[in-house]
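Bench notes, afternoon.
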Amino acid sequence: MRVLALSSGGKDSCYAIWWALLRGWDVSGIITVRVTGEDSMTFQLPTVGIARLQAGAGGIPWHEVEVEGDEATEMEELEAGIRNISGDDYVDGIVCGALRSDYQRTRVERMCERLGMHSFTPLWHHQADQHMQELVDHGFDVTLTSVSAEGLGGEWLGTRLNLNALDRLRTLAENHRFNIDGEGGEFETAVLGAPWMDGRIEMDASHHSRGARHWLEIEQADLV
């Protein structure tokens, strides 16, 4: 099975790539969508540049596709980018780390139909607490890069997802009624190390805040 993987550099994308590799599939490329506009209904904005280093650490070719972030055209822009990347080479499918967003999954599936490819969403409807626990248990080095939920303040920026942090996050999620896996936009992540990567990523970042939202602006990142 020869596939391309969509990756923002976050926990779910990286877990989905590992899932494909464990099955012996040929992950022939990692595609990161870079939004040139102010926002996107489908794609994550912060830290996507770190996916290039992740791909290098995994020995997988990395590709960037630019989209403006316009809801009406962004999937067409991604589709054109994938056609250009795959060229004359046959690709069986696209792997995506979607968890519970019907909107995201449906848009990717429709695009894959037009491309004549299968759509694989291996994490779809994974139990939230179990998913977070598995990230820790399997050695994913996950750091929080953005928080925007009641109970999650700026002190969480840069926090590594280990057993202690997960216990604290679990308590806050219960008390403030937010999704522990961040699927509702409560937080975003970057993966600095994973079972399929050789080496790990170190980054320097500055903290920014606007109202209840806090995020990291990555100044520099290197593979070590």
